[in-house]
Design brief:
single chain; about 140 residues; mainly alpha; 4 helices
Length: about 140
């Protein structure tokens, strides 16, 4: 004769009496947790891709910057936007690291590095490190003629 586990039988009867559904089986619990994990991965991937697209659109906007950026306020605004490109790249990198998204993480680090290169291209000639034409030295502030 098989022995009945009366405590589990009593729990089943109590659940049925209270109108609750029966206990899910271990296989059903495993399938549910797998589905939840996949949904969370999909959501994290879409979130990271949206953030990366936002930062890349800022990088594209820098390429078609319509204002003067040779000196003065325009230069400082341009440097500020380039700094935001770096901050955005790091923002996406942190998010993608948290959710283990390696491709988006690498792309976001490339975007942040690109922002550093853009800032270096503006700053190095002004501090005298990069070689420039001695006749037309870049300046920080625009001098009125």
């Amino acid at each position: 004769m098989t022995e009945n586990d009366w405590s589990t039988q009593l729990k089943k009867i109590e659940r049925e009496f209270e109108g609750l559904p029966p206990e899910p089986s271990p296989a059903a619990i495993h399938l549910q947790s797998e589905a939840e994990r996949r949904a969370q991965e999909r959501s994290a991937t879409l979130g990271a891709a949206a953030r990366l697209l936002l930062v890349l659109s800022l990088g594209g906007a820098i390429a078609i910057w319509p204002y003067a950026r040779a000196c003065g306020t325009g230069l400082f605004a341009f440097l500020g936007i380039e700094a935001m490109l770096i901050v955005g790249g790091i923002w996406v990198a942190v998010y993608s690291w948290r959710y283990r998204l390696p491709r988006i993480h690498v792309l976001s680090l490339i975007v942040a590095l690109g922002g550093l290169v853009l800032i270096a291209a503006e700053l190095l000639p002004r501090v005298g490190y990069a070689a420039v034409d001695p006749q037309a030295l870049p300046q920080w502030m625009c001098l009125a003629p």
